[in-house]
Amino acid sequence: MKRLLLFAMMCVSISFVFGQKKGDKVVKVTSSEIRWWGYKVVKTVPTTHSGTIKLKSGKFTFDKTVLVDGEFVIDMKSIMAGDVSSQDEDMVKLTNDLKSSNFFDVKKFPLAKFHLTKIIPLANSDYNSTVYGDVTIKGVRKTITFPANVYITQFTVVIESAKFSLNRRDFKVFYQSSLKDYFIKNEMDIQFKLSTAVLDNENRTPVKKKK
Description:
Layout: H1 2-19, E1 24-28, E2 31-40, E3 48-63, E4 66-81, H2 89-99, E5 111-121, E6 129-137, E7 140-153, E8 156-161, E9 164-167, E10 184-195, E11 199-200, E12 205-206
Antiparallel strand pairs: 1-3, 2-3, 2-10, 3-4, 4-5, 5-6, 6-7, 7-8, 8-10, 9-10, 11-12
């Protein structure tokens, strides 16, 4: 019994050591932009809706100089249809509908999350990488991948994703009992940009701080 207890204690100790990586450095996201698109079954410009949503927080973790992962929290209460400054009555109505229990139910699920697990370089493509990670919306977690341009310089990270699709039904984002839902495509598109530093747009490198 004593040997069994000693073995269990050793396992816990080993797990703790691996969980506490020496040299870990956490870098916070300082700039972000997230856009979304939704479509009716007849997909045309007039039947397409788009808008924005805000990042609440974001960080990348490095082991020495190697990027290990990233954690991002999205503020679902910030979701908005149309332009940020728009007061269009239809867009206000749609925004309220998106926040309601018909769709994202932001009172019950105020936050969504994305955990970046790995980045694989791409060759001969419009984007230089494939990003892998887990997204959680309304308490439902799914593993996703999408193409992106990723730039890493020491502890500076920039990610500019392609427009990629999620199936809203995978996350229970639909009218529970309404014919309206049959006129909405299951596909919803997301595109985002985020960075840990201000960039020189021409050279894609962090802007040097003035001394």
